[in-house]
Design brief:
Radius of gyration: 23 Å
CATH superfamily of the largest domain: MFS general substrate transporter like domains
Distance between the termini: 29 Å
CATH architecture of the largest domain: Up-down Bundle
Structural class: mainly alpha
Strand content: under 5%
CATH class of the largest domain: Mainly Alpha
Number of strands: 2
Shape: globular
Largest sheet: 2 strands, antiparallel
Order of helices and strands: HHHHHHEEHHHHHHHHHH
Helix content: over 70%
Number of domains: 2
Strand order of the largest sheet: 1-2
Length: about 450
Amino acid sequence: MSPSGKTERGLAGVLALPGFRRLWIGQVFSQLADKFYIVLMVFLIAQYWVTDTPQSNAALAEAAAAFRMSFETRAQMITLLATGIYVANTVPAMLLGTVAGVWADRWPKRTVMVASNGLRAALVMLAPLCLLPGPMWLGLSWGYWALVAMTFFESVLTQFFAPAEQAAIPLLVSYPQLLAANSVYQATSMAATIVGFALGDPILRLLRTLLAQVGIPGGEFVLLPLCYGAAAVVIAGIEISEPPREPRSISVWEEIGEGVQVLRERPKVRSAMIQLVLLYSLLAALYVLAISLAAAIGGLGPTRFGVLLAMSGLGLAVGALAMAQLGERFSRRLLASAGLGTIAWCLVLLGQLRGNLVFTLLLCGLLGVGAALLAIPAQTTIQEDTPENQRGRVFGLQNNLINIALSLPLVLAGTVVSRYGLLPVLWGLAAIAAIAALSERPWRNS
């Protein structure tokens, strides 16, 4: 609160709140650790399981034969083994989000967040054991399959952390500050994605080298326990005032049904959820289309498609910061329409101007800004209009739907582009976004 008694809004207002500031710092450590985790898994695969070309490694050749695939390069085999990690990380996100959300409602939010980070810190400390020699299966040592199993359980714990974190935000900030708080959350999430994937490998190698110089091997294994542990310690200091939970005899599935009922009874929550699912479907399709867009640019090429995605992430982060300062001046309906319209326009122009590096980068950044205009008000609406005792299960359901929305386009977009070409797909996605923008009827005041 300001000296005049008014609630301070914007970035300065929410970051001045001790509880939210601690949650934000915990989010930084936790989300960086999630990205560093994937980088570490790929690093270990490259260092310990794919040290030669597949042709010169009998074990890897056997693994390739088991999958009925042939590989000519080391990069292809690394990609195959990394896919196992990606699948193990994705399956819990698609299947367990709603169930984890129910338990996030049953248990104190701070306890859930501290326990999930603490357990993840303990779990990743087992990673060095996976490098010990042991039995083989499908041409690979037991250690690789142990990493796959560890990734699965790490992702399970993440499913508990995410809805508890999202449900804690409205308990730590006042309603007028929710839009700014969600802007900080989204900006931090995108920044962690960019920094985590861009700097993860250099940081791991640096730690490995520095600790080796003082006689300590395995320096690459230090980073994850430190990040998850720091998140647990910081969040443990948050004071969250939650109403007492009454013991309930109904089953988890009945409570999931109650979360679905919230969507049926509250049109604003339902509409915001649909907007988020649509947005993440469009972004997932862009992940695939970025390869074709990058391939059309002479100075880039298909393997550097990540530059386009990084620009979209940067645009989303910039849009989120702008929303924190200015978002309350505009209606949610107008912001959603503006975001969808911006995305539609960018998709059309990306098709028309493909091959031009500068314009493609600018359009990817502008598309990220449009995503922020849509995502942040939608997330804020869900937090405002969902009853406090139902937030965990609603956010769990949201995470389930978003992970499905992210996964299906990744499977379908490449096939559709191969059959119809890049331009028709971009136009089709733009049409979907434009129709959704008009369906918001931004000309209405209410």
